[in-house]
Amino acid sequence: MTSITAPIPDSGRIARRFAALKGQGRAGLVTFVTAGDPDHDTSLAILKGLPGAGADVIELGMPFTDPMADGPAIQAAGLRALNKGARMTRTLELVREFRKGDDDTPIVLMGYYNPIYSYGVERFLADARTAGVDGLIVVDLPPEEDRELCVPALSAGVNFIRLTTPTTDDARMPAVLANTSGFVYYVSVTGITGAASASNAAIEEAVARLRRHTDLPLAVGFGISTPEAAAAVARVADAAVVGSAIVRKIEAGLDADGVPSAGLVDDVLGFVATLAQGVRTARG
């Protein structure tokens, strides 16, 4: 097991949001979008509109040229963003602009270690914290590499949210959860994002097993693309995560040259609202 060499930070906005959801007797909706997709201004408009559409937590993807865990939709979104000039400084700029109007909704940056390493870990954590980032999900750093980023993040007061999967067995679980804070993200299927969803029974069994290992909130994602699927997860987990389906909705609003239609932002936020309705009514 990886030893804890930094204190787990106060989860801040994340803890307050999940406490509020518990008080309301419902699960949350976690939405994923790629920073800078399809362009910086449209991305900012979507980001600013997500809480009003019903997003309880926002995952903001950090564009990267080699997103090995992502399916075609999110890979394409990252390339669109990079082709429009997306980079780490602009991702953090999106967060700063969002925070001017919203100091409550948690934002978690999600992606890969390479862009953070290139930016410089110490500089990145300082800039992310100042911008208003609440947590990190870095999919290609296992617990054995916690000193690279996880421990510095915790020391800087930034939550480090770990992924667990159907192949994370009980023997491995303590190492995975040792330095995890904020919430735990359960990847309900093996493979890349946008894959087919797991069965409700499998998700319920996995959530029950995870609850034996941790008191942290549990968010379930991968393969959730409809209000009905989100509602099914919301009945057993603390949050449902939807990413690829939202990203595909963005792509559907682009013309052949990648130019967003006038109604793209409203269409995306309208779709998120249907997901939120499914989540909010899931428990009756």
Would you mind describing this structure in some detail?
The protein has 12 helices and 9 strands. It is α/β, with parallel strands linked by helices and 284 residues long. The chain has a single domain, classed as TIM Barrel. Strand 4, helix 7 and strand 5 form a beta-alpha-beta unit. The longest helix is centred in the C-terminal third of the chain and has 17 residues. It is globular and about 50 Å long. The N and C termini lie far apart (40 Å).
Oligomer: single chain
The CATH superfamily is identified as Aldolase class I
**How many E-type strands?**
9
| Major sheet attributes | 9 strands, parallel
CATH architectural name: Alpha-Beta Barrel
Order of helices and strands: HEHEHHEHHEHEEHEHEHEHH
CATH class: Alpha Beta
- Structural class estimated from helices and strands: alpha/beta
Shape: globular
Q: Helical segment tally? A: 12
> Could you report the average pLDDT, rounded to the nearest whole number?
93
Count of discrete structural domains:
1
Give the N-to-C terminal Cα separation.
40 Å
Please indicate the percent range of residues in DSSP E strands (runs of 2 or more): 5-15%
